[in-house]
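quick one: guanosine-5'-triphosphate bound model?
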Amino acid sequence: MNRGIVAIVGRPNVGKSSVFNRLVQDNLAITDDQSGITRDRLYGKCEWLDQKFSVIDTGGIELKDVPFMDEIRAQAQLAIDEADLIIFVVDGRVGITNQDRDVMNILHRSKKPVVVAANKIDDVKQESNLQIEQLKESSNQQISSIKEETDSKISTLMNNVKEQ
Ligand SMILES: Nc1nc2c(ncn2[C@@H]2O[C@H](COP(=O)(O)OP(=O)(O)OP(=O)(O)O)[C@@H](O)[C@H]2O)c(=O)[nH]1
Ligand SMILES: [Mg+2]
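yep, here:
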């Protein structure tokens, strides 16, 4: 994929904005312990080796009927529609939740290529290997385990993005 648009999507608080900041090499996006921090789409530019991407950070998708959720979901859907590829961020420590499956169903409907990024794995032992392997089998998607600021993991992720 060259000069494409990459949208970063997932349920709330999994670290989408942290991944976005890492890719654009700037603290453009606000990150916080609380859920629901990102609401609108946020655009940035990422240069990885010889390739340039536009990257879109999105708000965390929840299907629950809670205030602002319709708007956040609509914003994320616009980013999904616009993107050539989706980075689907999950929390690698907790594995795949029902909310992750809801988001994955939305991504399946988009028929766009998806690269799954298992974030927050600061220590390899934290990885919920079993569930993430199951996701891989059920979706045939590529998995990259990443921790923010770990270059080798980000490299693996971006190589998966480039291969699409
Ligand atoms: N330990 C650890 N914490 C992380 C990692 N990545 C992000 N975090 C923390 O997780 C919290 C949520 O990160 P965000 O990047 O704001 O998550 P988000 O998915 O953008 O959240 P919303 O916009 O609210 O949906 C913050 O406190 C981050 O510092 C990681 O790799 N390891
Ligand atoms: Mg965010």
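The chain is about 35% helix and 20% strand.
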